[in-house]
Write a structure and sequence with these properties.
- The protein is an alpha+beta fold.
- It has helices spanning about 5-30, 45-50, 60-80, 85-105, 110-115, 120-135, 140-150, 155-175, 175-195, 220; strands spanning about 210-215, 230, 235-245, 245-250, 255-260, 270-275, 280-285, 285-290, 295-300, 310-315, 330, 340-345.
- Strand 7 (about 280-285) and strand 8 (about 285-290) form a beta hairpin.
- The longest helix has 24 residues, at about 5-30.
- It is elongated, with a radius of gyration of 28 Å.
- About 30% of the residues are buried.
- Mean pLDDT is about 75; it is low at about 45-55, about 180-210 and about 350.
């Protein structure tokens, strides 16, 4: 077993010191109850001991936690690994990757939530709350990257110096290969700059910084028997399905329009079947099968004057809080026990 070196002890002491500094930063500058750190059980009590904190929209202050997170855990991990400078690089690369994965996970929260299971496991609920409440910020990305470069500045300096020496040697030869490498380097720099410059994060007129309150439809209301109503105008057209002499057109998350399709050039409306959360449909032996958010519903359509629900399988499909939510909206504190999410209320006064 490797004996810890002086550098390892310095790494661990630096990491612990930075972690304490990061917690103090949250206590002083943030209202913990309105940040993702409040997801940790019992942490809200800190606000009662210190105060409500100082809120700020300052770009630099908002990026400090991500900066400190990569910095502190890189040093602490390298110290625990009893690593040398190369091990410090590996530790910092690990935590930079973790930060970026979670940060971009907030940017694409709806996609991530679709892959998380729904159960009562604390870690699952913690992740769901994080990705539903969290707000993507390029400041956090840049803060994490800055920490990575600070941790490895000696190695990066040596690498750049060696690269510069190599470039000088190559330039003296003025070979076509040298020109190709220079062109590739310029293209790479321009490409990275374009990615950063095209950010759609906080502060540039988008709604990503606004957390929204979810609006729920109770499970009791969702599971009330499906009935046919008078035909309504087509909106948000989704799937189109033909069965015998009938045409079915889905209105996304709303229901199914049923038409007499004897004359395909002029289908005649027969009924509108109101099915909350419907996206897909199929018909077999006169039974219409539709999804209704998390349920699968069977509807008898053999008599168009007596369309009625015959059976329902509950909790068949994964719960997706963002199924009926526009792109770019982040929901706050989604609670699947309250029902399915059918909309949202704007709430721009929530600190990220």
């Amino acid at each position: 077993m490797k004996t810890p070196t002086k550098n390892n002890l310095v790494y661990m002491a630096t990491g612990l010191g930075l972690m304490v500094s990061g917690l103090l930063f949250y206590v002083i500058f943030r209202d913990i109850g309105k940040t993702n750190i409040s997801l940790i059980p019992g942490i809200d009590g800190i606000d009662g001991l210190i105060g409500t904190g100082i809120t700020s929209d300052n770009f630099i202050l908002n990026s400090v936690p991500s900066f400190v997170h990569v910095l502190a855990l890189s040093y602490l991990t390298a110290g625990l690994w009893r690593a040398d400078e190369r091990g410090l690089l590996s530790a910092s690369l690990l935590w930079l990757s973790v930060n970026l994965l979670f940060e971009f996970g907030q940017q694409y929260g709806a996609f991530v939530l679709g892959y998380l299971p729904y159960n009562d496991a604390p870690w699952v609920n913690l992740l769901r709350d994080y990705f539903s409440r969290g707000v993507f910020d390029w400041g956090d990305v840049l803060g994490s990257m800055l920490a990575f470069f600070i941790v490895n500045f000696r190695g990066i300096f040596r690498f750049v110096f060696a690269l510069k020496s190599r470039c000088v040697q190559d330039s003296q030869r003025s070979t076509p290969a040298t020109i190709h490498r220079l062109l590739f380097a310029c293209a790479l720099i321009i490409g990275v700059g374009s990615i950063v410059g095209s950010s759609t994060g906080c502060g540039n007129g988008t709604d990503r910084c606004a957390l929204a309150e979810p609006i729920y439809l109770s499970y009791e209301a969702l599971r009330s028997p499906v009935k046919a109503d008078k035909e309504t105008p087509l909106t948000h057209i989704g799937k189109i399905y033909v069965y015998q002499n009938y045409l079915f057109i889905n209105s996304k998350n709303a229901g199914v329009h049923m038409y007499d399709n004897h004359d395909p050039a002029n289908p005649l409306p027969l009924a509108y079947i109101n099915v909350p959360g419907n996206i897909d449909l199929a018909v077999k032996d006169g039974i219409l099968f539709v999804d209704s958010y998390i349920d699968l519903v069977a509807i008898d359509i053999r008599d168009v004057n007596n369309i009625h629900e015959t059976h329902r399988l509950v909790d068949v499909f994964p719960y997706n809080a963002y199924q009926n939510i526009p792109e770019g909206i982040n929901l706050k504190n989604v609670d699947s026990k309250l029902g399915v999410v059918i909309g949202y209320r704007e709430n721009s006064n929530v600190q990220r």
